[in-house]
Amino acid sequence: MLDPAAPLAVYMEGAVLHYGGKMGVGVLRYSPNPIACVIDSETAGRGTRETMGVERDVPIVATVEEALALGATVFILGIAPPGGLIPPAWLPAIDRAVEGGMFVVNGLHDKLAGRYGSRVWDVRTEPEGLKPGTGAARTLNNRRVLMVGTDMAVGKMTAGLEVWKASPKGSAFVATGQIGITVTGAGVPLDAIRLDFSTGAIEREVMRYPDTPVTIIEGQGSLVHPSSTATLPLLRGGMPTHLILCARAGQTHLETQPVPIPPLGQLIRLYEDVAEACGTFPRPKTIGVALNTFHIKDDAEALAACERIEADLNLPCVDPVRHGAERLAAL
Hints:
This protein is an alpha/beta fold. It contains 13 helices and 12 strands. It has helices at 22-30, 48-52, 64-69, 91-99, 113-116, 156-166, 178-184, 195-206, 231-238, 264-276, 299-313, 320-323, 326-329, and strands at residues 8-11, 35-39, 60-61, 74-77, 103-106, 120-122, 143-149, 172-174, 214-217, 242-248, 285-292, 317-318. A 6-stranded parallel sheet has the order 3-2-1-4-5-6, with helices on both faces.
């Protein structure tokens, strides 16, 4: 967990204006830490509000030296390249950051502790002491809300954090990916867990909060994505009582593969059916749709997209960043 007073430099070289910088955007939106700057030589001299559309406006600089001059003490890798591997071209910048006394936060699969020792937090590291799941979360009396998705990278973490912010006092958030863990300081990196222990890892996190009014569980992947295996451990480990479907407005096929996305109503039933497992476990109730409208510039058009889904499904549908998450949090 980071010192919440430590100023951050978010490394986003070549990613500010392009897909792949979701770690950096998540940190800019939700980290409690002060952020000294973003590093990207392509957009240096501009600000994050103008270039990325986030509310927090911090300067963009070209070099690690400039970040050090601005007082940054933590260097966060803010890019999520394909496969989660660190490109060799990044190493000189990381070397310079460590030489300058910075602590490195690495959310990728490649580990850096072997190169830099204790100056690194490798977020995607399997915790010790994991056991297989037992279904224990079904015995809890609180409400457990899992974010589920139509695709990868449609905003499940963002929606979960926004719903958590709008939930009753004392509610909990279970982070399951590198961004959520980095900004909240707790959680489990699901995609770094061996399969036999993945359900148990989620279960252990959820069982830490037996008395919260609501526990929000960050979703990963999608049942309809050929590359995704994350949903079942989340369903079995978290035993959610409620689901929120996360989707991108206007998307008809998976972003990276020519696979059609089913109608949202059918997808909701699929998630509920798999969670229930033919009556073996309690059936969760889908309580709303979190619609990602970031790519829609016109506010009226974004609202209309939500209204169409709401009319079709008879469920609340909002963009939680644009419209607030209060309706989704009103269980």
